[in-house]
Structures are given as structure tokens and as C-alpha cells.
């Protein structure tokens, strides 16, 4: 065999080997890199916090529709927040767990009724925004300090008037009712009596220290009635108290419209004369 043939066979063998490796690489399946698994972040332990379900202005009376439960991270709980008392998921942070436990105990006295029921009927004394936690510091209930100042409407004053069963419609006047304030006194001639309506449509804030009647109570016989009076008319009641006994006339629920206003003297014998002083009208009895 010549050298040329040997060289040709050698080159052919080399080409065959290279071609075999090339074909094998094309036919063999490609290795897919293993997927990278990202570990999911652990779920944050949450608790249910009582929050306002709408913007609540000062003086608003809370009801169940004004409050709702909102999930809240345990590590962000404040001891003043009100929770539903349910056991939250275990917290990794011991300090956060302690805060959660303290927050759940802040309204222990309320839990007998339920946290939401305990706030039902309370008066807002600091404005709260939608989604803001409802805390005891921002509301006040009847009998607590500051309650009367929150219940009073802007521009109004609370004044007390002495009453008894005879001068307060037999005790059927309850907090929240509307009344007229009347007074009867002797005329200047000393022989006749005149009756005068001092104020109309005043709201009764309290009877004695009771700002809400007891459950199923129909009457309250007290010694003092606290009335809501416009600031400009406070002196009318003050002067009336100095002049003698006053009576409260209970208004019908169908006649509660309108604002509080000053009254005018009624005619009782003789001729009535209407006198205007300082923009207000009054009637006097003329013989």
C-alpha cells in the first residue's frame, strides 16, 4: 500500500470520527438547567383591629355601621387598639407578641358585651378618619367627664333648670326630648297673672345626672333638667330662674322641627301689646 493511500485513509478516518461526534451532539438531548426556587416570604402574623368605616366628625354618635374589623400586622399593634380577642398567628418576635397580648387585654371589661357593642352609642370627641383605629381616648360615653361638652352643638350652652313632677310633665320628659319653657308670674298691678313662653324647642340633655333613660324606662322624676340653649338666649333662662318657678312643656315628636327660639308672652285677660326690643318680640298685658 502506498503512502498516498495510507494518508487518504487516515484523513477519511479522522473526518468520520469528527462527523460522528457532530451527529451525536445534534441527536443527544440538551441539558436543561435546574430551575431556581425562590423561597416565599413567611406570612406576617395578623390581628383584627376595630377601625372606623367612615370619616367620623366630633359629636357623631357611634353605631355598628360606623365600625368594622380590619387585619393589622401584629408588630404594628398599639396597646390602645381594640382587637376582636381572637388568638393571632404565632409571632416570631417576642416583643411583637407581647404587644399583641397587651392590645387584646386593653378592653377586657368590654369583652363581656363584645368590643364593637361596647362602643355602640358612644360620642366622638376627637375626629377619626376612615380606616383609623377606634380607641377609647377618642370617644366618650354618658356619665364620663367631658360628655356634656361633646354632646353640645356648636354655639349652644347647657343650663340647668329646677323641676319636679308637676313642672316636668309628670316625669314623662326624658333626655333627648324637646320642650318649651313657660313661666307664670304676677303682673305689675299685683292683681292679675301673666304667663310667658320663655324659650321654645329646647333639647333636654339630662335629667339630674342621667343622660340616657334606663332600659324600658318611661318616666324620670328628677330635681334638675339640663337644657341645651343658644348662647345668645342663656340670659333668658337665667333671668327666668330669678323671677320664679318655670314649667317644661313636652313637645310632640311630630313638632320637633326648627331651631330653638325665644317665646312671646301669651294673652291672659285685658289687651296684649307686642313690644320689640333688640330684634326680639314680646307681649305685655295692658289694662
Automatic annotation (TrEMBL):
It holds the Pfam family RcpC. Keywords: Membrane, Transmembrane, Transmembrane helix. The keyword GTP-binding does not apply. Residues 47-140 form the SAF domain. The chain crosses the membrane at residues 6-23. It comes from Phenylobacterium glaciei. NCBIfam families: pilus_cpaB (TIGR03177). SMART domains: SAF. This is Flp pilus assembly protein CpaB. The gene is cpaB.
